[in-house]
Structure formats: structure tokens, C-alpha cells
């Protein structure tokens, strides 16, 4: 009997869009069209104004916590359930893949729910990003980050900021998954952020099939074996046909 193909999903913000979580670069709705990454997504911005940055991530975490996985997430779960070896390599910092039951999820850009001390690195426990937002708070809410119980440094969000390196264990595991896969599905990423965007190129160089699912053109289309111009939910529901 032929073995089931090993499938890797490389996902970006578009994977979560139909769950109601905004992307970064979509012209009207993307986070980077409304907010300044130099203020909100780098260590210098956090050190300048910790309450602004912590409040923004608490707002994003609250939205992510109430979002629900969609039919595209369920299609990945179904593939896993019939015995395929499935790895999800995600740039997303929400936990929709985990909540959809995906067993192996590698977070290249960290997680909204892995706060740690900016000075000593101690992980926060309990996770403060799980706290509900104050009544009426919006994206501009100012909230002071709690102090680290060990060193009194400030807690920071567990996401990778501009200028920081990716978590090494996740990156190495992602490279291994790409090298060992038969098929790479690239879902909902503009393919503009490196080094993450190098993964599809690596798969293509190794001769793996690379299928892009995205309603708009992406930086990965040129090296793809096939492009499905569809939203994630509709594209992933065609998975069985694509294997
Ligand atoms: P982008 O905002 O750059 O790209 C989102 C992609 O999703 C685009 O190609 C859209 O066309 C596509 N898209 C929109 N709606 C979709 C839908 N319903 N189904 C499928 N695709 C859809 O987001 P990323 O590529 O994830 O980094 O951005 C990469 C990184 O840049 C992020 O992880 C973040 C950001 O700065 C960090 O925070 C470190």
C-alpha cells in the first residue's frame, strides 16, 4: 500500500482571517495599515512606552481568544485524522491551529500566550495575556505590563519583534519538516517576511510540490507548482483532491 504523503502547512495571517483576526498587509484592514510597527513591534518601542505596547497585545490576545477555528482548520484536522503526517509551520501568534486540534504546530514568530520577562526571560505563569480586557477597552488601551516576580523586570509579549531572531528550536524543526515532506501547502501569507518566507523556496529547490492557497497574488506564487486563488476555508476544503 502506498504511504500517505507527509504534508506541511506553512500558514500566515490569511489563515486566521476568516476567524476574524486581521492580517498585517491587506490594504484596508491590515494591522500595519492602521498601526506603526516601529512603535508596537520592536523592543525599542516597548522600552519607550511599555503600557501602549502591552495594551495593544492584550487587545490582540483578547480578539484571538474569542476567535474560532474555521472550516479550513477542520480540513487540516481531518487530514491528520486519516493518518497523514501533518506539520503546521505558522507565522501566526494566535492559537487557532492548536484549538482546531492540530497535533504538531511550530510557531516561527512566537505566541501571544507566551509572555516572559524582558530581562531574565522567565516565562509568565499564569499567562497575563489570558486576562479579559477592561470593559470598553480598544486597540489603544494603555495597560502596564506586570513585573517579573523574580527580577522585577517587565513582562513582554512572547512574539518575535522586528530585529529579533526566530526561536531556534521551531526554526530547526521547520527546516526538518520541509526536508522530509512530500507536499507543502502555503496558506494565507504574503511571503514577504524573511527568514520564514525562505521555507517554500527551500521546498521548491528540493523538488517538493508547493501549493499556494491565497485569494491574492503572493511572493511565493512564482515558485509554486500550483496556485489556488481562494480563501483558506474554500481552498483547504479541496485538500483531498490536491494530495
Ligand atoms: P500578511 O498580512 O503579510 O499577508 C496576509 C496574506 O493573507 C496575504 O497574501 C492575503 O492575500 C492573504 N489573505 C487574506 N485573506 C485571506 C483568506 N481569507 N484566506 C487566505 N489568505 C488570505 O501576513 P503574513 O504573511 O502572515 O510578523 O505576515 C508575515 C509576518 O509579517 C507576520 O507573522 C508578522 C508580520 O509583520 C511578526 O509579527 C514578526
List the SSEs and their pairings:
Layout: E1 7-11, H1 13-17, H2 31-34, H3 37-40, H4 43-48, H5 50-66, H6 71-81, E2 86-90, H7 96-99, E3 105-107, E4 116-117, E5 155-156, H8 168-180, E6 183-187, H9 198-205, E7 209-213, E8 226-228, H10 232-236, H11 239-242
Helix pairs in contact: 8-9
Descriptive keywords:
single chain, 243 residues, binds 2'-O-acetyl adenosine-5-diphosphoribose, 11 helices, 8 strands, alpha/beta, two-stranded antiparallel sheet, six-stranded parallel sheet
Distance between the termini: 16 Å
Order of helices and strands: EHHHHHHEHEEEHEHEEHH
| Percentage of residues in strands | 5-15%
Backbone CA Rg:
18 Å
The largest β sheet comes out as: 6 strands, parallel
Biggest β-sheet: strands ordered side by side in the sheet: 3-2-1-6-7-8
Shape: globular
Percent range for helical residues? 25-40%
Number of helices: 11
Question: Structural class given helices, strands, pairing?
Answer: alpha/beta
Strand tally: 8
Poorly predicted segments: none
Mean pLDDT: 96
Ligands, deduplicated: 2'-O-acetyl adenosine-5-diphosphoribose
Amino acid at each position: 500500500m502506498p504511504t500517505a504523503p507527509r504534508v506541511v502547512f506553512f500558514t500566515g495571517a490569511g489563515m486566521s482571517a476568516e476567524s476574524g483576526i486581521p492580517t498585517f498587509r491587506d490594504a484596508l484592514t491590515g494591522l500595519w495599515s492602521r498601526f506603526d510597527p516601529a512603535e508596537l513591534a520592536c523592543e525599542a518601542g516597548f522600552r519607550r512606552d511599555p503600557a501602549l505596547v502591552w495594551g495593544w497585545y492584550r487587545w490582540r490576545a483578547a480578539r484571538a481568544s474569542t476567535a474560532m477555528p474555521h472550516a479550513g482548520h477542520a480540513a487540516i484536522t481531518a487530514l491528520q485524522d486519516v493518518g497523514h503526517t501533518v506539520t503546521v509551520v505558522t507565522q501566526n501568534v494566535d492559537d487557532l491551529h492548536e484549538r482546531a486540534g492540530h497535533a504538531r504546530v511550530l510557531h516561527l514568530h512566537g505566541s501571544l500566550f507566551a509572555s516572559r520577562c524582558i530581562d531574565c526571560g522567565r516565562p509568565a505563569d499564569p499567562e497575563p495575556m489570558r486576562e479579559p480586557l477592561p470593559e470598553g477597552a480598544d486597540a489603544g488601551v494603555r495597560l502596564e505590563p506586570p513585573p517579573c516576580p523574580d527580577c522585577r523586570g517587565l513582562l513582554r509579549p512572547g512574539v518575535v519583534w522586528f530585529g529579533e531572531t526566530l526561536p531556534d528550536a521551531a526554526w530547526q524543526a521547520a527546516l526538518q519538516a520541509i526536508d522530509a515532506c512530500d507536499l507543502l501547502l502555503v496558506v494565507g501569507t504574503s511571503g514577504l517576511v524573511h527568514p520564514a518566507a525562505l521555507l517554500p523556496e527551500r521546498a521548491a529547490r528540493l523538488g517538493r510540490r508547493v501549493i499556494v492557497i491565497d485569494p491574492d497574488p503572493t511572493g511565493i506564487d512564482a515558485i509554486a507548482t500550483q496556485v489556488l486563488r481562494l480563501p483558506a476555508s474554500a481552498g483547504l476544503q479541496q485538500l483531498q483532491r490536491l494530495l
